[in-house]
């Protein structure tokens, strides 16, 4: 007799019938064992893509050393190929978070384009995650808890058990006499999630039997609210998007004067949306950095440092600088005698076109440079770059051409060419 959870899983998988393959994130525990068994035995091979499994070996506890062999045995019984991937977990305050980050990175690197990764989180996990984030004071984004599906690198991730309670999975496992491993760390109530799972959620279910389904419904409400906030952010972004005054600059930007007209709450909503793919979620205490940047004097050069980069201001323009752009570039002393493309360490590529004099030297700005222009005489380079509307953070990176110690050309600035540079052009392609 088919267990009642099987049709629910099959329904979740209908949109993914044309994926190149289904790959199960297999830990050997109850949840992933049930999921793998359903896919391998309850869905005919002719009705699904190729099926395989992947086990991520963290090496964090002695008990786990036997789990790869167990997973291999289960997969052999089911006729499913298994890949075992060993990873190193970074040493940091939260070992759980570090392991999770390393695990998802490994999945993203291992999966093939458009392949579907199937993970076995269930309704109890959803409730646990929602309560955990609520107690941390998370906003609407965090209170959406575990998403049912999302992109993962070039592949996709789906959680087909998310609407099914763990008790249902236990019933299925007992019906089919499945064997699984138990992670001893799950019994350690020192960990917050384990405490919620073992102490708080059972109490809630005693008083309110529908706790799991109600909490899942709450996450769906949060997802709807987040979509409305995203729609509002998109409208605000259309008004604030920076129409790049520098066509060759591959950096995202916003217009500060347009953002400043919004309420504080809409400013934060817009920035959360715009920065979502650039930096992890911004903690409440870090928003003071935004107000400092926004309200700084016109001639200031404020920087709002965040994870993986920073938001900087130049006049009324905001730019996001990735981490690689915040480091100082190496001193460069290129000698060029012929046209071509030249790699600038940590600073993109320089392309030289046209006819060169015998020799030109490529350097970066150090300060105090002057330049002789045919119609303007001798001018300070600092003032010339200001006139070209070159942001401050670019001025130490933009390549300069010298001949016999005389500055004769500035890359990407056709109006900043001396008389000796009329026969060639410098095109700088900054790092992405």
From TrEMBL:
Main location group: cytoplasm
Top-level taxon in the UniProt lineage: Bacteria
Subcellular location: Cytoplasm
Known catalytic reactions: cytidine(34) in tRNA(Ile2) + L-lysine + ATP = lysidine(34) in tRNA(Ile2) + AMP + diphosphate + H(+)
InterPro entries: Lysidine-tRNA-synth_C, Rossmann-like_a/b/a_fold, TilS/TtcA_N, tRNA_Ile_lys_synt, tRNA_Ile_lys_synt_N, tRNA_Ile_lys_synt_subst-bd
EC annotation from Swiss-Prot or TrEMBL: 6.3.4.19
Enzyme class: ligase
Ranges where the Lysidine-tRNA(Ile) synthetase C-terminal domain occurs: 360-428
Residues annotated as binding ATP: 27-32
Keyword terms: ATP-binding, Cytoplasm, Ligase, Nucleotide-binding, tRNA processing
NCBIfam families: lysidine_TilS_C, lysidine_TilS_N
Function of the protein: Ligates lysine onto the cytidine present at position 34 of the AUA codon-specific tRNA(Ile) that contains the anticodon CAU, in an ATP-dependent manner. Cytidine is converted to lysidine, thus changing the amino acid specificity of the tRNA from methionine to isoleucine.
Record-given protein name: tRNA(Ile)-lysidine synthase
Organism of origin: Thiopseudomonas acetoxidans
Name of the coding gene: tilS
């Amino acid at each position: 007799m088919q267990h009642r959870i099987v049709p629910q899983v099959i329904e979740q998988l209908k949109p993914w019938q044309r994926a190149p393959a289904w790959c199960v994130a297999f830990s050997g525990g109850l949840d992933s064992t049930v999921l793998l068994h359903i896919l391998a035995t309850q869905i005919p091979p002719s009705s699904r893509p190729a099926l395989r499994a992947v086990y991520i070996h963290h090496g964090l506890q002695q008990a786990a050393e036997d789990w790869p062999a167990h997973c291999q045995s289960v997969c052999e019984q089911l006729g499913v190929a298994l890949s075992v991937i060993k990873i190193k977990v970074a040493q940091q305050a939260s070992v759980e978070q570090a392991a999770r980050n390393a695990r998802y990175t490994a999945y993203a690197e291992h999966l093939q384009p458009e392949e579907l990764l199937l993970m076995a989180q269930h309704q109890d996990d959803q409730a646990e995650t929602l309560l955990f984030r609520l107690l941390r004071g998370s906003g609407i984004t965090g209170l959406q808890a575990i998403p049912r599906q999302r992109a993962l690198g070039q592949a996709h991730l789906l959680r087909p058990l998310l609407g099914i309670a763990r008790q249902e999975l236990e019933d299925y496992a007992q019906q089919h006499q499945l064997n699984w491993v138990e992670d001893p760390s799950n019994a350690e109530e020192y960990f917050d999630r384990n405490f919620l799972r073992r102490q708080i959620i059972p109490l809630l279910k005693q008083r309110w039997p529908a706790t799991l389904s109600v909490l899942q419904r709450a996450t769906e409400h949060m997802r709807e609210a987040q979509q409305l906030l995203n729609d509002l952010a998109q409208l605000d972004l259309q008004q604030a998007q920076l129409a790049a005054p520098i066509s060759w600059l591959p950096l995202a930007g916003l217009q500060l004067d347009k953002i400043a007209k919004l309420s504080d709450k809409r400013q934060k909503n817009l920035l959360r949306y715009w920065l979502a793919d650039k930096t992890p979620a911004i903690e409440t205490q870090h928003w003071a950095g935004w107000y400092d940047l926004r309200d700084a004097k016109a001639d200031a050069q404020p920087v709002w440092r965040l994870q993986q980069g920073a938001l900087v201001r130049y006049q009324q323009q905001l730019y996001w600088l990735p981490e690689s752009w915040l480091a100082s570039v190496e001193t460069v002393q290129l000698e060029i005698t012929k046209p071509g493309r030249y790699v600038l360490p940590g600073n993109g590529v320089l392309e030289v076109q046209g006819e060169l004099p015998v020799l030109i030297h490529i350097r970066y700005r150090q300060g105090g440079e002057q330049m002789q222009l045919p119609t303007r005489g001798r001018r300070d380079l600092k003032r010339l770059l200001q006139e070209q509307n070159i942001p401050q953070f670019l001025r130490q990176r933009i390549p300069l051409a010298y001949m016999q110690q005389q500055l004769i050309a500035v890359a990407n600035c056709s109006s900043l060419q001396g008389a000796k540079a009329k026969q060639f052009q410098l095109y700088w392609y900054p790092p992405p």
